[in-house]
Specification:
Elements (H helix, E strand, L loop, with lengths): L2 H14 L20 E6 L2 E7 L3 E4 L1 H4 E2 L5 H8 L7 E3 L2 E6 L4 E4 L21 H7 L9 E3 L5 H4 L15 E5 H6 L12 H13 L5 E4 L4 E3 L2 E5 L8 E7 L2 E5 L9 H4 L4 E2 L5 H18 L2 E3 L8 E7 L2 E6 L9
Parallel strand pairs: 7-8, 8-9, 9-10, 14-16
Antiparallel strand pairs: 1-2, 2-6, 3-5, 4-15, 6-7, 11-12, 12-13, 13-14, 16-17, 17-18
Length: 328
């Protein structure tokens, strides 16, 4: 028994010896949580982060590879995380610039039926959480995709193939659009076929309203595309500028706030080009640690807002405090 535990137990026994009045105020457990959305001001803009739900990966060492034996598990335990249950958030971003209402990535949705549940039933919650936040899908005029993986574009349409965002254009890199809709790329890992079939179904519904993003060019005023290839061939992140302030939506630049920041050159099992992805991640993390823009990461702990700082041979994640009064 540790000293701390003995001290705690001792304090508890001492308290138990004191006389107290019999007070009871039992209430039934509610059994449900609050809708998962968070809203804040960013310069002249309003940003709403909407959760698509938690995405469980299973054993961390199965998805994050290239470390010495036991190293991934040790890093997880050092952060008080379960190595057998690597859990990613899905933090979709809705940006209101006053001229446009822009959704960055869509989550898993239910467009592919059972395939949409490949990461479990905790995903696919974007639309209900949007509505809880007071935003209707029909209000979105632009969906900006970081890439065409299932957890980023499969809620573009419903199970019948109808557009979930009937008034929106869809912005994506030409390289990702070509790659993830091409049958010739159904090879290698087993997940490739459902990934491509899902991208084909979801993107085809918007084929007449596509916007091709280009590295360094504005998608709309205030939103600039930054090429970040490796995770997919056309993976793109986005800088959102309002006056002197910059917020970077980092998509899947780094999937885990511990593993891929402390060790940015580790590889991720779902990367199209793991080595290129690691080099891209390392280069951009160094830039962000130096320039200190605020970051919003799709997969970091809710709501994914914070900064990276230099920490030893890698980087650390400093989450931003949540402000629940600024728009109250």
């Amino acid at each position: 028994m540790s000293i701390q535990r003995r001290a705690l137990l001792g304090a508890g026994l001492a308290a138990a010896a004191l006389p107290f009045a019999r007070l009871e105020a039992a209430a039934p457990m509610i059994g449900r949580g609050a809708p998962a959305w968070y809203r804040f001001r960013f310069g002249e803009y309003e940003v709403t982060v909407v959760s698509d739900g938690a995405l469980p990966l299973g054993k961390a060492e199965d998805s994050f590879v290239g470390a010495a034996p036991g190293e991934v598990n040790a890093m997880m335990r050092s952060a008080l995380l379960d190595p057998a249950n690597a859990l990613l958030e899905q933090n979709a971003v809705i940006l209101n610039t006053g001229r446009h209402l822009i959704l960055f990535d869509t989550g898993m949705g239910d467009s592919m039926g059972a395939a949409s549940q490949m990461f479990g039933p905790t995903t696919g919650r974007l639309l209900r959480n949007m509505r809880a936040a007071g935003i209707e899908p029909a209000q979105i005029d632009l969906v900006v995709l970081s890439h065409a993986h299932c957890d980023h574009c499969w809620a573009l349409v419903d199970a019948q193939g109808n557009r979930n965002f009937p008034n929106a254009q869809v912005a994506i890199s030409e390289a990702d659009l070509a790659y993830w809709t091409n049958d010739a790329n159904i090879r290698g890992p087993a997940f490739m076929e459902p990934f491509i079939r899902g991208a084909q179904k979801n993107l085809a519904a918007y084929r007449d309203r596509m916007v091709m993003v280009r590295d360094g060019a504005e998608v709309v005023p205030g939103v600039t595309a930054i090429s970040a290839p490796g995770h997919t061939v056309g993976h793109t992140i986005y800088a959102i500028a309002s006056g002197p302030r910059v917020l970077v939506y980092t998509g899947d630049l780094a999937h885990h706030h511990i593993l891929l920041l402390r060790r940015p050159l580790l590889e991720f099992a779902f990367d199209t080009d793991p080595k290129q992805s690691a080099q891209t991640r390392s280069r951009l993390l160094e830039r962000f640690a130096t320039d200190q823009p605020q970051l919003l990461s799709y997969h970091f702990p809710w709501p994914g807002l914070g900064n990276v700082v230099k920490e030893g041979q890698g980087y650390g994640w400093v989450p931003a405090p949540m402000d629940v009064t600024s728009l109250g």
